[in-house]
């Protein structure tokens, strides 16, 4: 079968095991966890945006602990420099030569905590790493370990002391996800779970880097019919033609939506993509990449409103008789 790995298990089984491990710490939020799993399978980067205290950092650390990958966390602040991320060359007096001291970007998973508190200069240091999986320091280029995933948390830009991320960097995040507040039952369950100990302290990894890379390669075999592929293209192109949009979805966004749909099909045990995959993922993959006209924003319409409208308007492919 297409979604069967070398050890005989399916991607859906692996994803379910990983989901259950994450839910030992995170109460509920199954939809958010699934979106994070999709990002991992696409080797895409994940932007978690919400107000403080909703569990963004905890979710990112829980995902990192569940994956058997090297992990680094960086607290982004206004005085953080690009070299604090990439590393530096220093002169080793004992060896009498310059040596490279790698920064936290050389890890397989980087948690960029409160990324929008750093200046645009520092934020831009991530551009090459996120797209090309390499960093350039001075004149030397260093490949990053694979798989490579940036999980960034961000407070809404209306809060004081933050900087909006540049469009070029937003376009490199596969999707943006908001956690939201838990419901009443979930908040009670959270208090019970964390009453005596923090379950994150004893959480063990349930998958290794080789398995992750095998799954990332396998999802590319998920079948996408021509009509569904055209539907993905039509949805993305519709954002560029919309009167309320100043900057529509890029070709990178089209590829991101295509790959994310393959991953969603795989974790749900399917060997093919359906239109519902596109409808479900389009708001998460496209919204943060769009720039609306100033007049549109003054009328209270946001990019997510436009994406929902586009998804509702673009014709959905149907199976022919």
Automatic annotation (TrEMBL):
GO terms for molecular function: ATP binding; ATP hydrolysis activity. CDD domains: AAA. This is AAA+ ATPase domain-containing protein. PANTHER family: METHANOL DEHYDROGENASE REGULATOR, MOXR FAMILY PROTEIN. Belongs to the MoxR family. Transmembrane segments: none annotated. Pfam families: AAA_3 (PF07726), AAA_lid_2 (PF17863). SUPFAM superfamilies: P-loop containing nucleoside triphosphate hydrolases. Keywords: ATP-binding, Nucleotide-binding. It comes from Candidatus Promineifilum breve. InterPro entries: AAA+_ATPase (IPR003593), ATPase_AAA-3 (IPR011703), CbbQ/NirQ/NorQ/GpvN (IPR050764), ChlI/MoxR_AAA_lid (IPR041628), P-loop_NTPase (IPR027417). Residues 42-183 form the AAA+ ATPase domain. It comes from the Bacteria. Coiled coil: none annotated.
């Amino acid at each position: 079968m297409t979604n069967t790995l070398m050890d005989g298990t399916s991607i859906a089984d692996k994803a379910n095991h990983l989901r259950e491990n994450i839910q030992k710490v995170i109460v509920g939020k199954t939809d958010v966890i699934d979106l994070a799993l999709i990002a991992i399978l696409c080797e895409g980067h994940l932007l978690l945006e919400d107000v403080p205290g909703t569990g963004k950092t905890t979710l990112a650390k829980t995902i990192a602990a569940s994956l058997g990958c090297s992990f680094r966390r960086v607290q982004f602040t206004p005085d953080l420099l690009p070299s604090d991320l990439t590393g530096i060359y220093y002169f080793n007096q004992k060896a009498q030569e310059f040596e490279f001291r790698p920064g936290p970007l050389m890890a397989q998973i980087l948690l960029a905590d409160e990324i929008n508190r750093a200046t645009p200069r520092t934020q831009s240091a991530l551009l090459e790493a996120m797209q090309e999986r390499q960093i350039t320091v001075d004149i030397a280029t260093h490949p990053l370990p694979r798989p490579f995933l940036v999980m960034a948390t961000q407070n809404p830009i209306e809060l004081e002391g933050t900087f909006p991320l540049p469009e070029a960097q937003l376009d490199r995040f596969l999707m943006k996800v908001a956690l939201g507040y838990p419901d009443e039952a979930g908040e009670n369950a959270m208090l019970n779970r964390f009453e005596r100990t923090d379950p994150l302290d004893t959480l063990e990894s349930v998958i290794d880097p080789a398995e992750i890379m095998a799954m990332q390669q396998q999802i590319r075999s998920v079948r996408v019919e021509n009509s569904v592929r055209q539907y993905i293209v039509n949805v993305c192109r519709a954002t560029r033609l919309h009167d309320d949009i100043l900057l529509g979805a890029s070709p990178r966004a089209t590829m991101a939506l295509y790959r994310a749909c393959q991953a969603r099909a795989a974790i749900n045990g399917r060997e093919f993509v359906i239109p519902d995959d596109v409808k479900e993922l389009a708001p998460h993959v496209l919204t943060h990449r769009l720039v609306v006209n100033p007049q549109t924003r003054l009328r209270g319409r946001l990019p997510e409103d436009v994406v929902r409208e586009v998804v509702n308007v673009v014709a959905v492919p149907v199976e022919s008789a």
